[in-house]
Amino acid sequence: MKSIAVIGSGITGLASAFLLKQKKCPVEIYEAAGRVGGVIRSVRKEGYLAEFGPNTLLNTSKKIEHLIQMANLAGHVTFAEDVGQTRFLVRGGRVIAMPSTAFGFLTSPLFSWFAKFNLFMEPFRPRWKNKYEETVAHFVRRRFGNEFLTYAIDALVAGIFAGNPERLSVIHGFPKLYSSEQKYGSLIRAQFLGARDRKKRGETSKQEAKVFSFDEGLQVLTDAMAANLDNMLHLNNPVQKITRTPSGWKVGYLDGDIMMEREHSAVLLCTSAYTAQYITLDTPEKVSLAPLGQISYAPVTSVALGYRRSAVGHPLKGFGMLVPGVERMNILGTLFSSSLFKNRAPEGHVILSSYIGGMRQPELAGLPEDKLFELVHNDLANLLNITEQPTFKVAHYYPRAIPQYDVGYGFYKEHIAKIQERCPGLFIGGNYTRGPALSDNLLSGFDFADRIEKHVKEAGLMDV
Asked: In the chain, what's the furthest Cα-to-Cα distance?
């Protein structure tokens, strides 16, 4: 059979190609950049390990464990330290531990008694009747009240999407919240009743899933999959055109200044939406990828700062902290990276990974590095009682980091579904189709591998 084209070597593209190879399906991967992994980038420097993109994975499915075994990486997995179960939220300039139990919530200084009363009243509030598409902000105000939105959900949305809850769609940005309310009538009720359904499916909720990475960061995973696919990788080969043919698909790509073409049995498009918009689709159905260019992305800069441990007054016994917009700070949040995983900083030092910009303050993300280091250090110094300048500084700017699932995002999902329905053998994936969670996009590789294998078999393009 002709090979399957995978366009884009981020986590979705790599995982799909890796799993297709395990199924004995020949694969060719086209990558416009000179490296694989997309936003996943781990850098070891001066004894520190910095993650420029995502920092962690969630073990939400046995499939993830299976993939790690297939990649021979079981010995490189490192689970988060126990302190990682503690999360912090900033309120009134103070770093306060988020409660993890009902009693802890009752005694927590994070929320007023009125907010606590609102939470316990949530099971008695009616379902949304789908009068119109709700924002996350409207959903939370309706079920929990404004204080919970201002001091918890605003920070959570900034941490996940670098987004704005007043614009983000609950049905598209947080579909499980929406479906939980519709199915169980209450999010609190869903926590108990939904656990039984997840157990039947062999899934673990994201709240309960183990947090993990690898001994040298998440890039260990993408590098391992790329090494397995080495002779199938075509770096610095941006795809310009995808053409439907009587027997499958033809991919046109640049090799230097020369336009090349190669025949394939199927195509999986896993680029960003803003890259996909420039790829010409030549099919009898006259569909286009151009509308994907209208998807909004949040700009984010990742800033990793190292300090002498003795210069940091806070114990750093936790996963990290999120900062609500009402606090008027520069950072969106910070991971206590060297508390979360071992061997992330030299002996006697710590590393803190912060994020700046997003839809909250997009203009900050593109500032010069020296200014970014200053802004982040000042916030950390005030919040964590840091008395010295950092001993280590690195940053990475993503002008378009995370797609925003704002109200109206259903248009793009429907457009993508229409293209795939009208063009059998063309599949579209990535974080603008599955959400920003790294584990969800990794798991989507299993879905695409199964669907593509089924397609080529049913089309008679592969021996059954």
From this structure: 68
